[in-house]
Amino acid sequence: MKNLGALFCMLFVFVCSQNSKAESVKTVISTANTFIKSLNTDQQRAVVIGYTKENATKWTNLPCGLQCRVGVLLGSLTDIQLQNAKAVVKAAMGTLPSKGYDQAMQILAADGFLGTGRKGYSQGNYIIAFLGKPEITGKWQLQLGGHHLAVNLTFDNGKVVSASPLFIGLEPKTWTTNGVTYAPLKANHDLLTSMLASLSDEQLESAKLASGFDDVSVGPGADGKFPATKAGLKAGSLNKHQKTLIIEAMKAWVQIADDATAKKLLASYAAEIDNTYIGYFGGPSLANKGDYIRIDGPSVWIEFICQPGAVFPAEVHYHTVYRDHIRDYGGSFSFFN
Predict the structure, then answer these.
(1) Which of 168, 197, 219 is the last residue of a domain?
(2) Is the peptide bond before 165 cis (omega within 30 degrees of 0)?
(3) 105 and 199, same domain (yes or no)
């Protein structure tokens, strides 16, 4: 009887979890339709477009607005429309502080800070787009993008099937506005440096890559261009604590998705940890120009690099990308190296 009771409890939790996921997607669809209905005809044509490879891969980290993206600019929306647009992405993304939606909004705020007295940087220079009609049946993609941000969430028959590719960058690394200090990629940075700090000198030597990079290597326009051979230190040789630190570092990117999806993706990556590699170039503190690190698993791919400052040349700024060898764009398109 005790075993039956335990089985019932497990089944109950599973059913509740599935119902919670379904309700979460229904909320995304509901808010999406509210937003779309608030737009005029021309805006509706621009924001809901075909779910094609060309449209899905049209994203970048550059501050070029609609010249290099699809969708509608947030800056072109009325206050009510903008409120409705933010309700969509808030429903679709993670809920933790400085993760998911909160982190994305801080990236937008960084551009608002950069835009003070400078042209080309603005919170209004970001886009939102639906590739395919947001509905329970069928496959479609939600895009939120702009300078230093490219969110791509893919939905299929009422489920979130992919949270990648994701690009997150940041300049400056930290700033203060109205007495509040922001540093939306600090946790990402610190989790990676903690991961490296746990390694012995011998392990660090094994993890060091033969050459460095100017930028993330599988960024915009580089779909499917993963290295043919994994390099660095194989996590299967590490102890339990070190493996946990790698998984915790992954979490900082995966939590861009809603909480249930992030948990599911992370469980998949954790199950593959022994065949996951970590590699770095430059210094393990990730503090200087050219310092670089990546996590490369059977599925997960994460890169982080310290770039020369563009607006503040004496500083570094961050470029990062999260991809999935299998699940990018929901596995809808084929790419060849």
Answers:
(1) 168
(2) yes
(3) no
What 3-state class would DSSP assign to 66? helix
What is the spatial distance between Cα 20 and Cα 306, in angstroms, rounded to a whole number? Answer: 38
Domain identity same for 221 and 296: yes
Question: Residues 148, 212: one domain?
Answer: no
Q: Which of 168, 195, 225 is the last residue of a domain?
A: 168
Quote the CA–CA distance of 315 and 289 in Å, as a whole number. 8
Strand intervals (E) in the chain? 48-49, 72-73, 127-131, 139-146, 149-156, 159-162, 166-170, 175-177, 180-182, 233-234, 277-281, 292-296, 300-308, 316-324
How high is the pLDDT of residue 20? 57
Cβ distance 319 to 305 under 8 Å? yes
Q: Within 10 A of 21 (CB to CB), how many other CB atoms are there?
A: 18
Q: Assign 337 a pLDDT band (cuts: 50, 70, 90).
A: low
Instruction: Output the pLDDT for position 15.
Output: 40
Of residues 22 and 212, the one with the higher pLDDT is 212
Q: Are 111 and 147 contacting, i.e. CB atoms less than 8 angstroms apart? A: yes
Same domain, 50 and 84: yes
pLDDT of residue 11: 38
Tally of structural domains, the chain = 2
Which residues constitute the domain of residue 83?
Answer: 24-168
Q: Is the pLDDT confidence value at 7 over 50?
A: no
Q: Supply 223's token pair.
A: 């779909």
Q: In the chain, what percentage of residues exceed pLDDT 70? A: 93
Average pLDDT in the 174-190 region?
Answer: 96
What is the secondary structure of 274-303 as a DSSP string? GG-EEEEES-TT--STT-EEEEE-SSEEEE
